[in-house]
Structures are given as structure tokens and as C-alpha cells.
Amino acid sequence: MFIVREEMNNAGAIEVLMPVVQPADLWQESGRWEQYGPELLRFVDRGERPFVLGPTHEEVITDLIRNELSSYKQLPLNFYQIQTKFRDEVRPRFGVMRSREFLMKDAYSFHTSQESLQETYDAMYAAYSKIFSRMGLDFRAVQADTGSIGGSASHEFQVLAQSGEDDCGSFSALVVFSDTSDYAANIELAEAIAPKEPRAAATQEMTLVDTPNAKTIAELVEQFNLPIEKTVKTLLVKAVEGSSFPLVALLVRGDHELNEVKAEKLPQVASPLTFATEEEIRAVVKAGPGSLGPVNMPIPVVIDRTVAAMSDFAAGANIDGKHYFGINWDRDVATPLDSQRTLKLLISATWWLAIQARMVRVRC
């Protein structure tokens, strides 16, 4: 604890100790009483008043500051504590990892501007780096999802090890990092760049093919002997509220999986990510989910960068029981240049990935 306290104090943070038992009304006010889910340990006292055993202290510290702060001139403020936390984990395992009771250092800061917030964020980043370095740990500062709290940036400082939080049983436990730079990211947020090779020239004419028994990519590939990397799957999700279109089409290569974390962060897409029902799809496209594709798609289209690099590919024709073969961008359908993203999960069968021409490893 000495190293942690020393570096936090050096960074200008003030140590406090907040109550483990927290009133439910604070969590109800923030909306996280329902949002946090079953991991939130709840109980009632003898007066039937609801409380929680704190898994974190955003609600408590915010209530404290709003009642004690008298002027913006008192800001910025940065508080930290080292305290026992409680979460009702569904399957506690690995000893100190994913346990229901654990010791955590958490910090909370308050600011009058984004610039002030960024200064404290940078100071905490530097402090964490010093803590891990002083402990002699092999670590990476990993870009991570901001989760239910939100925000524009999040880093997880992760120690590299052969066994991990989910023993590689979950994509969210995987880290992509470079051996030749400081790049590191959670697998769900890792970015891929567009292929460096130019898109191959078209060699086929677009052809409408009857595919009555091919409702999935696997069936299409098997029945028509197509290379799966020459196929595109189209997924329809609900659009953000206020959009002029009810749905958005997301395109990934046939052998790739949609990264739902990234998809949910798209400005066109509603949060939480919600896949369209068959009824909703038919109301917009006039075809079922097994026959969707980019040609004549009447709603906005967002494509993965690997899809943008494809030529002579197969996709649904937006007509039941039919697909187009030999589709080419800008000849048969316009490339949505302002809607190219990394939508796929960065996972390969051998757990090795090439990002920005550098070899990176995937570890838990």
C-alpha cells in the first residue's frame, strides 16, 4: 500500500475513507440501482430501508461534494481511498480475482472544465505508470470501454500473464498490444487499419442468383462453393432516436463477427445496441434477414474497413431467396466513405494479429 499511497499523494490526490454501507436512494437517483444488475449487493435494515454494500463510490462522493462544496473556486478536487468493496459475482474464482469481497484503490475528481479534467487524468495515468513500474510488473495501459459510467476515455492498467480474469474464456479479457510501440487496447476496442493493398479490380459482373435455401453465410458458402472471405453479411440494428431512418445496416465480412461494443458507439446507432426483428426488417427492406445486402439498401449503411477493400463479393439482394454475386463498390453500389469503421472483433484462429504492420500478441 505504501507505493500506491505515495504516488497518489505525489499526484495531489487527498485520501479519504467513505462508508461501505450506502443508502439505496443515492443509487436510485443515479439510475444505477437498476442498471448495475445482480452484482449489486442489496439488503434492508430492521426498519425495512434498502441499502447496498458498496461496489464503488461515485454516488457517495458526489453526494458529499454537492453538500460540502460552496464555490467553484475550490475546484479541482481529487479524492482517493483504499477500501474493501463488495460485488455479488456470479462465479467467484481465481482466489483474489473475481471475488465477492476485495480491496480496491478508487479515486474521484471534480472540475470546472474539460481541460482541468484532462490534466488530472494525465496525472493519474502517470501515477499509475509509476506504481506498476516501481512494483516491477510487466504491464500495459490498455484502452478500454468506459462502461455504464461513460466518458470519452478509459484506460485499464493490466499486468500481462498467461492466466487471466476469465482464463481467456471471454473476449473482454483479451488484450492486443504492440512489442514496438506503446499501443495497447482491450480486444473489444482495438482498432484495425484499412488494408494497405489497393482494392482488387472487378473481374465479375454482378449477377442475381436464386438462393432459396441459403439463409446464412455458412449455407451460402456450402451450397455455392464460395470462399467465405468473398461474402458479406448485413446486420440491421435500431437507429439513434430522432434519426430520419428507423434502422441502420452494419456490414462485416462473412468470416468475421460484429463487435457489438464498437457498434453501439456509432453515432447512427441506438444505445443499448438492439438488433431489428424480422418484422421490423421486412417493414423497411421488404425482405427477410437472410437476404440482406448493400445494393439498393434503403437505410444508412456502415461498413467494416475490410468490407470496403473487397471486390467481386456476394451479399443478399434485399429480395427473399436471392443474392447478388460479383458485387463491386462504386460500380454496383456507392462506397459509404464517411461510414467506414472497425466493426469486427479483432480475433484470429491463431491468436496473433497484425496491426499497423506490427506484430502484436493477444494475451489475457
Topology:
Layout: H1 2-10, E1 14-15, E2 21-23, H2 24-30, H3 32-35, E3 41-44, E4 50-53, H4 58-68, E5 77-86, E6 101-110, H5 114-134, E7 139-143, E8 155-159, E9 175-178, E10 184-186, E11 207-210, H6 217-224, E12 232-238, E13 247-253, H7 260-264, H8 278-285, E14 301-304, H9 305-308, E15 313-316, E16 322-327, E17 340-341, E18 352-355, E19 358-363
Parallel strand pairs: 1-5, 13-14, 14-17
Antiparallel strand pairs: 2-4, 3-4, 5-6, 7-8, 9-10, 9-19, 11-16, 12-13, 15-16, 18-19
Helix pairs in contact: 1-5
Structural commentary:
By secondary structure, the chain is of the alpha+beta class. The protein has two domains: 2-137, 2-Layer Sandwich (BirA Bifunctional Protein, domain 2); 207-341, YbaK/aminoacyl-tRNA synthetase-associated domain (YbaK protein), CATH 3.90.960.10. The protein is built from nine helices and 19 strands. It has helices spanning 2-10, 24-30, 32-35, 58-68, 114-134, 217-224, 260-264, 278-285, 305-308, and strands at residues 14-15, 21-23, 41-44, 50-53, 77-86, 101-110, 139-143, 155-159, 175-178, 184-186, 207-210, 232-238, 247-253, 301-304, 313-316, 322-327, 340-341, 352-355, 358-363. The strands form six sheets. It has a four-stranded antiparallel β-sheet with strand order 10-9-19-18, with no helix packed on it. Helix 1 runs antiparallel to helix 5 (114-134).
